[in-house]
Amino acid sequence: MTQLPERAINLIVLDMAGTTVADGGLVEQAFTRAAERLGVEPDLEYVRATMGESKISVFRALFGDEDFAQRANTEFERAYAELVDGGRITALPGAAEAIAELRAEGRKVVLTTGFARVTQDAILDALGWRDIADLTLCPADAGRGRPYPDLVLTALLRTGTDDVRRIAVAGDTSYDMLTGARSGAGIVAGVLTGAHDEPRLTAAGATHVLGSVAELPALVRGF
């Protein structure tokens, strides 16, 4: 492990699905399964528009009723877990290597998600990623999910990072970009391997747009 310069980026907060983990349409498939089980029509247009947001928040917006939103969230998490258990989850090319490289340079890496903890753990187990990062966080760990800054600020507090400007946030959705911008992170990097395109990422606050997370170590070193 190398000694970082005094003002270098020393905390990397990474999204999972679409950023480090290939989604392959699993979120939409899980929403569809959950809607079928609940006897409601899946609003896939809204699901696509809110990719990256905390899933329980999406269901609250869709259905209004808190009890039904909680039921819908439970069904979604169950459906997504079924897809994960069926071998439908893979790491994006270069993601594990990028994380290893960042950590070898002395930087802390935190993986975040809009999923519940049970789903996040299922993904980590399926990939063999339990020890790949310094910390993993879901919305329940932080109080609120994206687009609030809570996940990034919780990562800062739990890793003992001393300055928000020394944080790099990377994700594939506008909600990831809003979270990074609202936290004051020095780098807010959008990646083009997931839900949203470059104009949408930039409009939401991206300071940089990368082809994939594999390009992040070089960006961070040059900051």
Automatic annotation (TrEMBL):
<dbReference type="InterPro" id="IPR023198">
    <property type="entry name" value="PGP-like_dom2"/>
</dbReference>
<dbReference type="InterPro" id="IPR050155">
    <property type="entry name" value="HAD-like_hydrolase_sf"/>
</dbReference>
<protein>
    <submittedName>
        <fullName>Phosphonatase-like hydrolase</fullName>
    </submittedName>
</protein>
<dbReference type="Pfam" id="PF00702">
    <property type="entry name" value="Hydrolase"/>
</dbReference>
<dbReference type="InterPro" id="IPR036412">
    <property type="entry name" value="HAD-like_sf"/>
</dbReference>
<dbReference type="InterPro" id="IPR023214">
    <property type="entry name" value="HAD_sf"/>
</dbReference>
<dbReference type="InterPro" id="IPR022468">
    <property type="entry name" value="PhnX-like"/>
</dbReference>
